[in-house]
Design the sequence.
């Protein structure tokens, strides 16, 4: 539809008295094209070239995010009813892009990331010898308030103590294992006894992270060893990710993990914020976030980063819940202690 809008606008610009029959022919031809033809040198053409260059160099999730940005720019072209060229992109264009995005109810974070990606494409154009205004572009400053969903230590204890049906026991054990190893489901669900080794009397597990290809050697927490003991010093049988996500929600509900939270759910093509109970938003990644957040401040950050496989502290801190109630209470206790000593 966006390509049709642009093409019709071009035809009318060339001939204001164009016939309905000619417009219908344009619509049929554009509609029958299996993939949109981007005009050489246009911004969408450059985006397509950039995506082709990066396809084998970035992970699948990053590539899909690039595709989302491209579809957004196609939609903006449809809104403008004209093609966009890199030379014309300036601060006024960015302001118009933000106005369009807000009208379409995109989040500020999506618009901000898209605007940064526009700059990336303009830099790509400069390398191809195309003059742009990328150095004069002003992107609105936006800082997203991070909402990191974790299981706090008291909630993990509730899960450990809860009684669950036999068919949920494996998922419960994997959930607890994930909270004490800090790994992605693509890694912890592949844990097996062949990866175990002993270093100075400590039971460890050695594996290569599937996403980053980093080699990790991780000492196993006593809680994990206790679970393994029940399986004959082995790990539970692995579960399919879809089944696992479904079952840990049931486990969290049975464990009364029902704190009211704000969550974003996809409604149509947009994310909408709505009220829910915490168990409803639990997924496989919560163990990794809980590990990072619960041990942060108790164990030196470099050691935690070595366990999670994060390359930079900034990346690691994205997993930290900025409002950790246990740390808030601990700080309050220090205030009271210092006040009592000075009274």
Sequence:
């Amino acid at each position: 539809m966006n390509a049709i809008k642009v093409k019709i606008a071009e035809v009318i610009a060339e001939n204001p008295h164009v016939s309905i029959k000619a417009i219908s022919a344009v619509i049929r031809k554009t509609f029958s094209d299996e993939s949109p033809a981007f005009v050489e040198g246009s911004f969408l053409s450059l985006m397509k070239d950039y995506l082709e260059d990066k396809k084998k160099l970035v992970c699948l999730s990053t590539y899909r995010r690039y595709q989302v940005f491209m579809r957004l720019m196609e939609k903006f072209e449809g809104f403008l009813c004209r093609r966009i060229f890199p030379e014309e992109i300036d601060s006024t264009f960015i302001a118009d892009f933000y106005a369009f995005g807000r009208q379409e109810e995109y989040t500020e974070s999506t618009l901000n990331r898209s605007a940064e990606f526009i700059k990336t494409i303009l830099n790509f154009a400069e390398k191809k010898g195309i003059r742009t205004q990328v150095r004069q572009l002003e992107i609105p400053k936006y800082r997203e308030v991070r909402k990191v969903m974790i299981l706090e230590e008291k909630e993990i204890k509730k899960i450990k103590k809860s009684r669950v049906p036999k068919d949920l026991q494996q998922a419960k054990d994997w959930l607890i294992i994930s909270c004490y190893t800090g790994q992605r489901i693509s890694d912890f669900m592949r844990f097996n006894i062949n990866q175990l080794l002993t270093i100075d009397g400590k039971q460890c597990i050695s594996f290569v992270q599937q996403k980053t290809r980093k080699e990790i050697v991780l000492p196993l927490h006593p809680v994990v060893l206790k679970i393994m003991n029940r399986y004959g010093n082995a790990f539970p049988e692995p579960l399919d990710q879809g089944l696992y996500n479904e079952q840990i929600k049931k486990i969290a509900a049975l464990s009364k993990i029902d704190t009211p939270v704000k969550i974003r759910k996809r409604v149509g093509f947009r994310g909408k914020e709505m009220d829910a109970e915490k168990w409803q938003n639990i997924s496989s990644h919560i163990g990794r976030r809980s590990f990072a957040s619960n041990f942060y401040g108790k164990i030196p950050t470099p050691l935690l980063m070595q366990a999670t496989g994060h390359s930079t502290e900034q990346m690691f801190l994205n997993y930290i819940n900025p409002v950790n109630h246990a740390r808030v209470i601990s700080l309050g206790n220090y205030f009271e202690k210092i006040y009592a000593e000075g009274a």
In short: The chain has a mean pLDDT of 87. The first strand starts at residue 196 and ends at 199. The chain has two domains: 38-136, 153-332. The CA atoms of residues 116 and 139 lie 7 Å apart.
